[in-house]
Each structure stands twice: as structure tokens, then as C-alpha cells.
Amino acid sequence: MIIILRIISYLGLGLTVVPSILFADDAMGHDSMKTAMTIGMVLWLGTAPFVQRAKQKLVQDPL
Fold first, then answer.
1. Distance CA 40, CA 56 (A)
2. Most Cβ neighbours (<10 Å): which of 2, 16, 26, 32?
3. Which residues, 6 or more positions from 33, have their beta carbon under 8 angstroms from its beta carbon?
4. What range does the domain containing 56 cover?
């Protein structure tokens, strides 16, 4: 489960960074950039706390 959350978290982080670069290069429109960045923000902020909590739990309670 943590692997899926980590993948979604990285995907969300990528969707927050990459569209701004594409917009600066005129490869993406303004509305598309805002939509992609909003989806990325929701994905990243929705999954990152769970990933961090699981990572912290592994550090505190190793196998």
C-alpha cells in the first residue's frame, strides 16, 4: 500500500512542477497548466502525510 501512495505522491509532485516549466516554454496553455497543477497539488497534499507517517513508523519500529 505504501508503494502505491508513494507513486501517487511523486506523480502529484511532478504535476505541480512540470506544468510550470512547460508553460514557461510555451508548450502548455494557461488553463491546462492551472488544471494540471491543481490536480497535482491535491494528489501530493493528499498522499504525502500518509507516506511520511509510514516512513516515520518504519524508522521507529524496524523489523
1. 24
2. 16
3. 19, 20, 22, 23
4. 2-60
Cβ pair 48, 2 in contact under 8 A: no
Cβ proximity of 22 and 30 under 8 Å:
no
Say what the pTM is: 0.80
Q: Which cell numbers in the block locate residue 25?
A: 516554454
Residues 10-38 have pLDDT tens digits of 999 999 999 999 999 999 999 999 999 99
At 25 the three-state DSSP class reads: coil
CA 36 to centroid of chain Cα atoms:
11
8 grid coordinates: 501517487
Domains in the chain, number: 1
